[in-house]
Specification:
This protein is mostly beta strands. The chain is about 15% helix and about 40% strand. The model is unreliable at about 235-285 and about 295-299 (pLDDT under 50). The structure holds 2-acetamido-2-deoxy-beta-D-glucopyranose (2 copies). The site of one 2-acetamido-2-deoxy-beta-D-glucopyranose has 6 residues, from strand 12 and strand 16.
Length: about 300
């Protein structure tokens, strides 16, 4: 008598006995890998690992995004692997057992909660599942820009400058530094966020303060705007290439900015000692500095 002919109750009894008497473990989901951050336009590799109990036969592996199924592997089906259309979820490749799926290309809609669900055959239909969240990251293609600065300031003048980030997602965070020190809260206006049609955002942060003698005590008055996307980190090689490109951006920024704003503005990319992309969050640091020379101080 094969399993297919046995009475379901009998199989149920056998399975329960095996579990109780011999401590036989049942279907178990061992690992689900969903990359937490994926750069726009790149590949997202998802994988799911499970272990079948001795009494289990694999029935199905199903993949969901935000509760909607987009891929299914049912070994007994006439079409064992099936894709279901879902906006932003393009299955480029899948492994024969449905454990690995690759999505390409990542678009903003690709972000969301991914679930892998593995089921065993009747009569128990054991089902295990796990989920992970994916955020699609769009890096700004240029560093922050500073507007409203003047060539010279006198003591008592008001400095009113504005820093605007490149378009990104998630939103870029901005911070102002005066002579290397974080600008006091009273000098800052609340940041403004502009959302564009394509889902990307720009952030602006205005700085407004009165020039005091202390600002020139150490020579030039330096204003720096720092842009960060603190959660941009990846763990695979493919994504570390993105990190390299990032540094390239801030370097080229140095050149263009230094060239276009001549002597009074110096743009400083600040990759610093870049943390290892493999195991540490990678900070995107792009900043622009303004030096106001003390020599030009009298107008
Ligand atoms: C599935 O993904 C895992 C983890 O990323 C990887 O180690 C494994 O080689 C992949 N298997 C296939 C068949 O692609
Ligand atoms: C700063 O610049 C942004 C973008 O140009 C603008 O939307 C915002 O109103 C400006 N803020 C101030 C205080 O000037």
């Amino acid at each position: 008598m094969t399993a297919a002919h046995a009475h379901p109750c009998l199989l149920l009894c056998v399975a329960m006995l095996l579990t109780r008497e011999y401590g036989v473990t049942s279907l178990e989901l061992l690992e689900l890998r969903v990359p937490a951050h994926v750069a726009l336009g790149t590949r997202a590799a998802l994988s799911c690992r499970w272990a079948l109990g001795p009494a289990d036969v694999l029935y199905s592996v199903k993949w969901y995004k935000d509760g909607k199924e987009f891929f299914r592997h049912v070994p007994r089906d006439h079409e064992p692997r099936r894709k279901f259309p879902l906006p932003g979820v393009d299955v480029e490749k899948s492994s024969p057992n449905g454990a690995n799926v690759t999505l390409y290309p990542a678009v903003l809609e690709t972000g969301g909660r991914y679930r892998c669900e593995v089921s065993g055959e009747r009569p128990l239909f054991p089902t295990v599942s796990d989920h992970g969240d994916m955020v699609i990251v769009a890096l700004p293609d240029h560093g922050p820009t500073i507007t409203g600065s003047r060539l010279r300031y006198q003591i008592g003048d008001r400095v009113q400058v504005n820093c605007t980030s490149g378009r990104s997602r998630p939103a870029t965070r901005l911070a102002w530094y005066i002579n290397g020190e974080p600008a006091p809260a009273v000098a800052l206006l609340p940041p403004t966020h502009e959302k564009h049609e394509d889902g990307l955002e720009t952030t602006s942060l205005a700085l407004d303060f009165k020039v005091k003698p202390k600002h020139f005590r150490k020579g030039d008055l330096k204003l720096k705007c720092l842009a960060t996307i603190a959660t941009v980190y990846w763990r695979s090689n493919e994504e570390s290439v993105q990190g390299e490109r990032l540094k390239g951006y801030s370097r080229s920024r140095e050149l263009t900015e230094g060239g276009s704003r001549a002597d009074r503005v110096q743009a400083a990319g600040k990759p610093g000692s870049a943390p290892s992309l493999a195991d540490a969050p990678y900070l995107l640091l792009l900043c622009v500095m303004i030096h106001i020379s003390q020599n030009k101080f009298h107008s």
